Amino acid sequence: MNRVSLFFLLSLALGLARAETDVEFSARARALHERIIALDTHLDTPANFSRPGWDIMDRHTYETDRSQVDYPRMVEGGLDGGFWAIFTAQGPRTPEGLAAARDKALIRAVEIREMVAKHSDKFELAFTSDDAARIHAAGKRIVYQSIENAYPIGKDISLVQTFYTLGVRMMSPAHTSNSDLADSATDANGPEWHGLSPLGKEFVAECNRLGIILDASHSADSVFDQMLELSKTPLILSHSGPKGANNHPRNIDDERIKKLAAKGGVIQINSLSAYLIPQPVIPERNAALAQLYAKFGLPAPQARAPGVPVGGAGRGGRGGRGGDMSAEQRDAFMKEMAELDKKYPVPQATFEDFMRHVNYALKLVGPEHVGFGADWDGGGGVEGMRDITGYPKVTERLLKEGYSEQDVANMWGGNVIRLLKAAEDYAKSQKKA
Amino acid sequence: MNRVSLFFLLSLALGLARAETDVEFSARARALHERIIALDTHLDTPANFSRPGWDIMDRHTYETDRSQVDYPRMVEGGLDGGFWAIFTAQGPRTPEGLAAARDKALIRAVEIREMVAKHSDKFELAFTSDDAARIHAAGKRIVYQSIENAYPIGKDISLVQTFYTLGVRMMSPAHTSNSDLADSATDANGPEWHGLSPLGKEFVAECNRLGIILDASHSADSVFDQMLELSKTPLILSHSGPKGANNHPRNIDDERIKKLAAKGGVIQINSLSAYLIPQPVIPERNAALAQLYAKFGLPAPQARAPGVPVGGAGRGGRGGRGGDMSAEQRDAFMKEMAELDKKYPVPQATFEDFMRHVNYALKLVGPEHVGFGADWDGGGGVEGMRDITGYPKVTERLLKEGYSEQDVANMWGGNVIRLLKAAEDYAKSQKKA
Fold first, then answer.
1. Residue range(s) defining the domain that contains residue A308
2. Checking DSSP bridges between strand A141-148 and strand B168-172, what pairing results, if any?
3. Of B346, B380, B400, which residue sits at a domain end?
4. Which chain A residues are closer than 8 Å to B120 by Cβ?
5. A283 burial level (CB within 10 Å; 0-12, 13-18, 19+)
6. Domain total of chain B
7. Which of A218, A275, B226, B394 can bridge B195 by disulfide, Cβ–Cβ 3.0-4.6 Å?
8. Residues A332 and A354 reside in one and the same domain
């Protein structure tokens, strides 16, 4: 009898006859979580790269600086990488505004690439669908780039290729206000284009031509409908939720989720409290927020989860002077923010709310069309999962609910890599034609 | 008597009474060279950053790979840094051509910044005139960025600010052919704008507004004249030579050098053989060159020093497919190039020719208006100084010729830093106004 057979028999005798213990189950879930490629499709973390004194190699805590992603926590949370966002807050659509947005986005792309260059033993830029597996096998973290709000493209479609050349492989046409390309789901002034603008349609075609995944998160339903019709490759909702789980304009209805899936697309579940659960509008809170933001020279706030300044700790600087805040100013801001939250509390979503959204989408379209884009460092995070170290719990829960290891692997990375492959294949097919 | 006084008396007794030996002189020159901030204002080295397998931290030799600058040789040659060029070969002035040039220049800027991020213990980006001394004191190499040929700006003046934001602090409007901004000194079809185009005049004003040094190297004399008149701050010729030392259209006449100096500007001496000495035109050589370049998919060659493929080893890829050449292809190309040089030899400039140009300019306008921009990795290098390790000889020679330590320090860095300070000060004064 060889040693392997002996081990097998002993295992059988000692353990397999009885049910798996909780500890064993957790260990098996964690092992799976480590084995698969775990990607989050909306990391706002690059906004932190220019924060004075903030280093991705340090272990931070949400409690002390509101950040949610760094290298030590990626290791702890078993997050292998994702799409690191080049976010630009919507600003004036003047020539000056467009030029400034373009430059800001270019600098953000440079900061992402500098971070990777500086820590090239730990991170690697990913450009193709094959890169994820290769980088994962090399023991490094995966850095795909995405654009949240194509405002920096301005009226110059050729800039889509510029950002593609820099490595961007996912783009959304708008953010919380209408852009030159598309209507937002949440513009206070309502629709402007009733979907995509003529330039927005060119944008869709250009993304298809180059091999960029189109992202409908933040866009109006009309934009989703038109992109779904026009795009030659499946869409993503990089950080969204089902309206059926919470009726918010940033979430999407069942019919549209089904159409998305029918065309091969995926919805990546967000963890932002305001989208996960109903939150009352408290005019006094909003007025106090506006006052606080103005005091620190930040752009006007949007409805956000409590405790999360300006759409996430990192986002403080985006579009405003927040990025230039000293550590002292930031501390002062955080302190006043905490007081404001205490004075005007709003309900906070929990890990269970997040899983409720995940499960709602899973029941609707299945594990080949659902994944995770929790808006870390951009306003995401719930009670019980305040940063990425909570991610292994998601895998554990999915296994517990009966999803197979393959299902779980698809949700964590397989689906979005399939979308990138489809975008690449279409682009290649056009080059040949 | 304290120890210092004793040492002084002993020194006097033992050494100072007799003449300095050659070894002592060399040591003193080297010590000076180490003490001052030595900058070269035209390093084409960034073109090597994307060469497969090429690493700036390795010690290369000119003989094996034609490169002339890397970190070990910067230490050996006492070169503290300089202006690292974002070079773009002039191409089609179509919308597609302009967009491609813009993207190529952006990627080159990113490659420079990635190099610095990767080796942040050895290199640091410089943005202001103060940065040079600070970085030098920290024991790191200084990386200012420059644009050679503003072709990537295209017709969009707002891109000047984009590159400024990325760190560019010196720009020239044209290269070897006319651009949308200005006439070249060497366009085969002669003048197009008779100086600056209307857009070129906007370009000058925008560089002034932002605090960018204007560089007239490669531009036609008419452009030099107009820039000298229009610019609110002193001009640089980042890599040029005096016509009085060799009558070549890329060199500049005495009157213009004097006018440049009268307005506070500087001429930085080039070391490219074809500009330093008369070289016969050999039609058979040029035909063979064109054939060789076409064979390797490179853009058409210009008149260049023998042994220097496509304007320097690094430049092989610029504007063509050379950058994608494998190490094997590059070796094959170099071998055929060496055979061609052997078959159709042209005279090569020497270190003495380089110093003849330096001294000519010095006699004309003095050490506050002369410096070094030897076009390393862009076609520069002479017999006796094939790479930057030869630079200490220049300092030694200048001392020997009677220039003071302050003169030498000005030539090596003080002058160009003075120009950057003037550009900054003007930009600041405009912001206040």
1. 282-346
2. unpaired
3. B346
4. 118
5. exposed
6. 2
7. B226
8. no
